[in-house]
Design brief:
The chain has 126 residues and is mainly beta. It is built from no helices and eleven strands.
Length: 126
C-alpha cells in the first residue's frame, strides 16, 4: 500500500520560509516523479513544483519560480519543498503526489498522479 505523509506546514508571516517534507512508502521511490500541488479555499488544485525520477528535471509554476525549490533524497524516500519569500497568496493546503507511472519527467496535471498525501496546511499572514 502506497503512503505519502507530509509534514512541515504551519503559520508564517509574509516574507518568511517553510520547508515541507513528504515521506513515501510502498513504492520504488527513486523511479517515480514526485510533485507538490496546492489548493486554496474555493479554488481548484494546482501544480506547484515537480521533480522527475531523474533529479535533473524540475518544473515550477510561474507563481513560485525563484521562491520555491523542490528536491528529493532517494535514500530517505523523501521529497522536499523549500518555500522562501512566502506571500499571503501562497496560503493553501499543500499536497504531495507520486506519478501514476514510472521513469517519467514530472507531469503538471493532477490526473497524471496516482498517489496523494493527506495534505498539510500552509498559512501566510500579511
Amino acid at each position: 500500500q502506497v503512503q505519502l505523509v507530509e509534514s512541515g506546514g504551519g503559520l508564517v508571516q509574509a516574507g518568511g520560509s517553510l520547508r515541507l517534507s513528504c515521506v513515501a512508502s510502498g513504492l520504488p521511490f527513486s523511479s517515480y516523479a514526485m510533485a507538490w500541488f496546492r489548493q486554496a479555499p474555493g479554488k481548484e488544485r494546482e501544480f506547484v513544483a515537480g521533480i522527475g525520477w531523474s533529479v535533473g528535471t524540475k518544473y515550477y509554476a510561474d507563481s513560485v519560480k525563484g521562491r520555491f525549490t523542490i528536491s528529493r533524497d532517494n535514500a530517505k524516500n523523501t521529497v522536499y519543498l523549500q518555500m522562501n519569500s512566502l506571500k499571503p497568496e501562497d496560503t493553501a493546503v499543500y499536497y504531495c503526489a507520486a506519478d501514476r507511472g514510472r521513469f517519467r519527467a514530472a507531469p503538471v496535471k493532477t490526473s497524471e498522479y496516482g498517489y496523494w498525501g493527506q495534505g498539510i496546511q500552509v498559512t501566510v499572514s500579511s
